[in-house]
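We were asked to recover a plausible sequence for a given structure. The inputs and outputs are reproduced exactly as logged, with field labels preserved.

PROBLEM: sequence recovery
POSITIONS: 396
GIVEN STRUCTURE:
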């Protein structure tokens, strides 16, 4: 693995999941990256298991490429960048990211990642996915923060900033019989194809309000309380005021907790939905919201504008955080060169994205800001907009 993040060990013992010890789960991502989740208790390892359930596999015959392991051990850093409670550090053997009482400890090479029980799971997911990105970009594939469906014989991707409506758009189309590629992110190829990435759907109470039959599953008092508070906010203030939405969302997360997530397999929400492993892309649709809009609108955008949006979204979703981690890693870990590798992968992914847009319809669909799509049948309006793509009516 010398072509990946440097410093990886070249030999390890094949795992034996049958031995006594912490719980061990194994995952195979497209036959390209195998990783293990070890230990249980707390949200970090629990979310990994829920999120990647579709990729779970029996114990492999060779060592995993990456191990994510729960730990309660404290660390003693010999060098730190930052303050006493929030910093990057080096123990002499491991790179450390500390946020308050929680931390992530990383073996040089990023082959073994230890997380404390309530470490933010996505902050460990991004480095694991980066290992997959390193390998798939060599096959001409790039990770995109987008939903994807196949509807009426056409494959449409919906890249978007967080909270712009990817999940509700996906649900609206699945309700109309669309086939499923992904709800949150997927892989696009330089050859113009999309590969499904069936991670568990991260439900929000607004998704459940918008679609009958979609229900949250509570894993404790906190998650039930958070959903109740969100519903009270909706009942009291309604939709449309971005400032009010932001302020109340902050209060809800501040006093109830921002760590609550409701992860569900899409097949449990839409039992009749079928999955698509890979399909040629017909349209790429950038989702946007307008708090002053009352209707769904469609407009064409240039390939250049779409590429800029895809790059900006990827930066916001994962590359910015990875860049900060890797800069600190290189500054603290002898021989570190993770930043150069990140730049190489991002540049290669940009070339893939640029090629993937050749011959593809590129649009922006602007949605009214609404927490409950059942009002005014917003879901059906989105479906009509998607069905209009490629027709003269979709051209301004």
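RECOVERED SEQUENCE:
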């Amino acid at each position: 693995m010398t072509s990946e993040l440097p410093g990886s060990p070249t030999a390890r013992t094949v795992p034996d999941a049958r031995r006594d010890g912490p719980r061990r789960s194994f995952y195979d991502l497209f036959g390209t990256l195998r990783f293990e989740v070890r230990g249980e208790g707390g949200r970090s390892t629990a979310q990994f298991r829920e999120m990647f359930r579709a990729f779970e596999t029996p114990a492999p015959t060779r060592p995993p490429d990456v191990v994510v392991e729960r730990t309660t051990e404290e660390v003693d850093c010999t060098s730190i960048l930052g303050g006493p409670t929030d910093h990057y550090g080096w123990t002499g053997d491991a790179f450390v990211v500390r946020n308050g009482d929680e931390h992530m400890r990383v073996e040089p090479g990023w082959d073994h990642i230890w997380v404390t029980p309530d470490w933010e799971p996505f902050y460990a997911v991004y480095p694991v996915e980066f290992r997959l990105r390193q390998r798939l970009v060599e096959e001409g594939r790039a990770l995109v923060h987008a939903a994807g469906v196949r509807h009426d014989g056409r494959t449409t991707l919906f890249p978007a900033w967080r909270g712009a409506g990817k999940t509700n758009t996906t649900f609206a189309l699945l309700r109309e019989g669309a086939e499923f590629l992904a709800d949150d992110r997927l892989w696009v190829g330089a050859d113009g194809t999309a590969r499904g990435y069936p991670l568990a759907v991260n439900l929000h109470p607004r998704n459940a309000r918008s679609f009958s039959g979609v229900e949250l599953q509570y894993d404790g008092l906190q998650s039930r309380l958070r959903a109740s508070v969100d519903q009270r906010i909706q009942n009291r203030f309604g939709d449309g005021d971005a400032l009010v939405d932001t302020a109340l969302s902050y209060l809800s997360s501040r006093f109830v907790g921002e760590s609550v997530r409701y992860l569900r397999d899409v097949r449990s929400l839409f039992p009749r939905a079928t999955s698509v492993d890979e399909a040629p892309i017909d349209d790429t649709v950038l989702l946007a919201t307008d708090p002053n809009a009352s209707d769904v609108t469609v407009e064409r955008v240039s390939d250049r504008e779409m590429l800029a949006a895809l790059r900006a979204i990827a930066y916001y979703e994962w590359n910015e955080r990875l860049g900060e981690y890797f800069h600190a890693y290189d500054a603290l870990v002898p021989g570190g060169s993770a930043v150069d590798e990140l730049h190489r992968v991002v540049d290669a992914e940009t070339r893939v994205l640029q090629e993937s847009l050749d011959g593809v319809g590129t649009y922006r669909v602007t949605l009214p800001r609404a927490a409950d799509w059942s009002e005014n049948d917003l879901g059906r309006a989105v479906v009509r907009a998607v069905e209009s793509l490629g027709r003269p009516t979709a051209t301004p």
